[in-house]
Specification:
357 residues; Rossmann fold; 44% helix
Length: 357
Amino acid sequence: MFDENFRGKVIWLSGATGFKGSWLAEWLLKLGATVHGYSFEPNTDPALFGQLGLADRMANEIGDIRDLEGVRRSILSAQPDYVFHLAAQPLVRLSYREPLETYATNVMGTIHVMEVLRLLQKPCAAVFVTTDKCYENREWLYGYREDDPMGGFDPYSSSKGMAELAISAFRRSFFKDHPVRIASARAGNVIGGGDWAPDRILPDAIRSLRRSEPIPVRNPNAIRPWQHVLEPLSGYLQLAAAIADPTLHPPSELCSAFNFGPHLESNRNVRELIEDVLRHWPGSWIDRSDPEAPHEAGRLNLAIDKAFHLLAWRPKWDFSSAVSRTVNWYRDVDSGKCSPVAATHRDLLAYSQEIIS
């Protein structure tokens, strides 16, 4: 459904070497786009970026989003039709150890991209990816809506709330009558094959299972909106395509913030996630709850009505499908049944068929 939007178009993608960035780069390449990445070197071994051989199929500039001049050179050289800003410090617990880097990356990095886009004198649709944790979390039973207050207890969450406030201010101050149109996207906890990041429950589980060790679970009762990585990525693509064509809706509606979360039944606690993982890759888990550990949200849900009504976007895979797709990616790659490229393309094809069915 995206062929007409992205085929032959130039994409500037920050964070291309990360987990979500690699999946998005692969999808855009399959859609016929020219992708220019701007990222750090991959910081895990293995890394999905390397497993997919993306360095040989796209231009990826090694750079720091905190470097305004580097961002300026990269974007103005690429002259993109679309921008997807994914580069971030994405870990809650790391943000407690490195708060300055977290704020510099997540807040000033976002501002750097917007500041450079002010110089771009051509039509461009830009999607800035933040997180569901940008909201002031009150442990509500119901989902947060896009106009709920920003906040955040920990440095990571608050940095993303601050980024959203900056995006809103720049959009209203500088992009109202500008050829560049900007929107922001807030997604839940994503899972999917090829995530090798430390201190994330699914990659931690896979590493333990590969070693035949019990999975350490530090917060089994925490509830999160689990979704396969392709779900929010499809939302980012639909949002970008929509703001590139403002005849669909008034720009004031589309150039705004959107939640891309799962159906309500996918709001599960970590215990349920791990038990579902073990149905596909037998093993065990152990409760490593630590009352002295840094604060993390206990409950977090997203309302997705706005994306449904304005973008006709809705999740396609339920909780069980997201988990099985994810675990099967790792198992099949680990056993040699298929390559990372084949496993990734298999999921992309299945999800694309869901979109158009």
